[in-house]
Amino acid sequence: MKRGELLTLAETHYNEEQLLELEYAIDFASNAHSRQKRKSGEPYIVHPLAVAGILAKWDMDIDTVIAGVLHDTVEDTGVTLEQIESLFGRDVAFLVDGVTKVGQARAGMKNLESYLPQTKDNLSKLLIAVGKDVRVIIIKLADRLHNMRTLEHMSREKQKKIARETMEVFAPLADRLNMGRVRVQLEELSFRYLTPKDFSRTKALLDSHLKKSQRKLARVRNEVARKLTEEGITFEMDGRVKSVYSLFKKLDRYDGDIDQIHDLIALRIITNDLDDCYLVLGVLHDLYTPLFERIKDYVALPKANGYQSLHTTVQTNTGQIVEFQVRTREMHDYAERGLAASFHYNEQKMTDAYKKRHMAELPEHLHWIRDLQETAAKAGKNTVIDSKKFRMNLFHDRIFVYSPKGDIWDLPYGAYPLDFAYRVHSDVAARTSGFRVNGAMKPFSYKLKHGDTVEILTSKNASPKAEWKEYIITAHAKDKLRLQLSRQNRNLIEKFAGRLRIRSK
Ligand code: MN
Fold first, then answer.
1. Distance, CA 64 to ligand 1 centroid (Å)?
2. Average pLDDT over residues 313-327
3. What CATH class does 197-336 carry?
4. In Å, how far from its chain's centre is CA 48?
């Protein structure tokens, strides 16, 4: 990205005074990096400008964008933090310092890992290092995104190494912050470089199936749009195509059978308010046959990262199975941009009434978002920031555990292996016969520790048991288990009733 492009982009986001400061930062950084080049041969400054451009597109506050411009100066040039503080203020200096320290923490971590190859909790170490201000993490994500986009200039070995780190650390981090769009971009790029053959095979499979389903879907889309308009509901509708990586992961669970996967394209309906979401759901279920077991109410029960939406899968008269995602504009924005969106909403409409209305609904495990927003709102008003309040430890109540394949899952502190199993997949959980943690058998009552690698052992004959209630703490696992137990009871009663009928004949 060039100076002029960034300034044009920024014009639509920031005021005159802020733009002047940005311009000054660009000149300062260009000068500092003037003798450096990127691997691509371009002047180094294109990278920090691209990072700042990404941050502006995410609607971050001007301090964050300026820190994006300056993010590599202290680490890579002779510029000092004191200089930055005197020229751009304490907030910008604080952010640049944070980004620099994350870099250093990561370097230190790598040394540690070479001594202790079994140390796997690199993610949390990174987080602890940057836990002070969440905007530091957001700058790091923008930095990583641009580095991934320009990875073609690196050696094959470096590409793989950076892609693996992105997959293991940065994509889960984006997910934790509910930055859905960033997570998908990071995963797609990493997947492409990590296992290019899997990537191109899966992509070809997806593309060929998309052609078929897109045609059929157009009819459903028109039908739904007509009905919603008839009902006087204001809405927007678009199609969301499954990412190549997420398809790859799902295919693994369905023995590679793409016909079993019903959400290659989901239709997304965005409404003005929550009441309309439920109205839309009613219309959909009126029009088509809902597959009841597949309704997911993430509004009443948001995902751990705060994601909210209503998901339903229906079957049309012609037998086509379609997934719908229904949400408000605000939920949509938050699902796509996550934490970054919360900064935007902060500045736009963080009135007290708004705060009360929305924050009161947040479940306890999401209070960190409220804390964050309050802090950011204060920062936005340019009041003096209490550095202790600003020090946010987003992850203090969570632990991170690993699947044998190395996928990272976060769970609340005190979770049991069954909580993990239900997080991974409720069908798998239902067939659990035992657990192996870090290679050793553990009872259901074992409390998971940070960094544990958990393997779920299953057997065809295993089934959910009422006693399991004592060995789960997450709401998600409790819901799923309750559902499975009641279904199991119903089956028993039906079987029993069937036998009685036979006997009485
Ligand atoms: Mn950088």
1. 14
2. 89
3. alpha beta
4. 24
pTM listed for this prediction: 0.65
Q: How far apart are CA 323 and CA 265, in angstroms?
A: 7
Q: Which residue has the higher pLDDT, 137 or 111?
A: 137
What is the tens place of the pLDDT at every residue in 329-343?
888 887 777 766 665
* Residue, of 253 and 442, whose pLDDT is higher: 442
**What pLDDT sits at residue 294?**
63
Q: How far is the CA of 182 from the centre of ligand 1 (A)?
A: 17
Cβ burial, residue 209 (10 Å; 0-12/13-18/19+) = middle
Q: Tell me how many degrees the CA angle 204-189-50 measures, rounded to the nearest 5.
A: 135
Distance of CA 145 from the midpoint of ligand 1 (Å):
10
Residues belonging to the active site: 75-76
The first and second tokens of residue 357, run together, are: 């209305």
Class of domain 398-504: alpha beta
Residue at 60: amino acid letter: M
Which residues are close to ligand 1, an ion, with C-beta < 5 A?
72, 143
Q: How far is the CA of 371 from the centre of ligand 1 (A)?
A: 28
Instruction: Locate 166 and state its tokens.
Output: 């992105």
Domain ranges (residues) in the chain: 197-336, 398-504
Answer for the pair 402, 438: CB distance below 8 angstroms, yes or no: no
Judge whether 198 and 206 are in contact, CB under 8 Å.
no
pLDDT digits (tens, 9 = 90+) for 406-425: 666 778 889 999 999 998 89
